[in-house]
Amino acid sequence: MNKFIILTPQDMVDWGVANLPTEQLRCIGTDGSGIFVFDTIPSRFSSKTVYNESEFDAMLRDNTSVFYTQGY
Q1: Which of 5, 33, 36, 63 lies in disulfide reach of 48, CB 3.0 to 4.6 Å?
Q2: Smallest Cα–Cα separation from 58: which of 45, 49, 67?
């Protein structure tokens, strides 16, 4: 099952750009944050809110979301 988390720009800097799983990046927000998909959430992000696929889809359809994708 896919698990989605939102990483802020600061999360990404703290993790280290070289460590970012760019192949797991699903969407970049207008604020620079990103939604990443994991099978298992890395322990360093265990305190992050975990979203399921339908919640991820809803973020892309919500025109008030920083992740809004027109026509999704």
Answers
A1: 5
A2: 67
- Is residue 1 over pLDDT 90? no
Contact 33, 6 (CB under 8 A): yes
* Token duo for residue 25: 């990046």
By residue count, the chain amounts to: 72
Continuous segment of H or E residues that includes residue 61: helix 53-61
In single-letter form, the type of residue at position 46 comes to S
Enumerate long-range contacts of 17-26, CB under 8 Å, 24 or more apart. Answer: 26/56
What is d(CA 32, CA 65) in angstroms, rounded to the nearest whole number?
13
pTM reported for the whole predicted model: 0.90
